[in-house]
Write a structure and sequence with these properties.
four-stranded antiparallel β-sheet, 4 strands, 211 residues, 2 domains, alpha+beta
Length: 211
Amino acid sequence: METVTEAYPDHDFPWTHYFNGEPLPRWSNCWHLVPMHSYAEEYMNRWEGDFVGYQRLWRLGCRMDHLGVESEDPEVFRLCCLTLCYVLLRHEPDILQELEAEGPRYGATPLEIFTGVRGGLFAMYRRCLADGIAFWASGYEADRDALREAMRRSRLQPSDPDWLEPPHLWRQRLDAQFRRSQIRSDILSLLGTRVYSKEVRRLIHELPKKP
């Protein structure tokens, strides 16, 4: 069996980025190479209310160049794309200067990486708006086929046995389950810290174990 290293050799990096089934410009998924997040954090910290915060953007960036099929809520994805477009346009000279240390490591100029990421952001925004979904994968034609199949299955009714829960939804669900389990354990641990009434102790012990 081929290992991941053998199947995806380093000399091919960055592998082709497919968004909603279509190939995008080289470097378009390499958000991690562009030192944009410090600028984005400062920009997004000014927001108030229920806007998507910097941590959501950071987690999205960490998943952008991963192998395998990924997805995100299309409204959240477009907001993150616009934010990073603003950051790249606003801080282009500074970002290009900081990329001087990254480009040689990957056999590319700072401008090649910068324009690839920028072009990818605009392309993904348009595709996300037109398609109403945000699915992507990096790799080769087989990965593109897997992406298209995941998109097809995600459009089925949940009652269909072939339905596939979009990756971002099952990730959110599992994260919520894990956090609920932790909080339930914390509540149970309170029983050893003070005396509670019989009614309160009953309510605590009857908390469902299923996260």
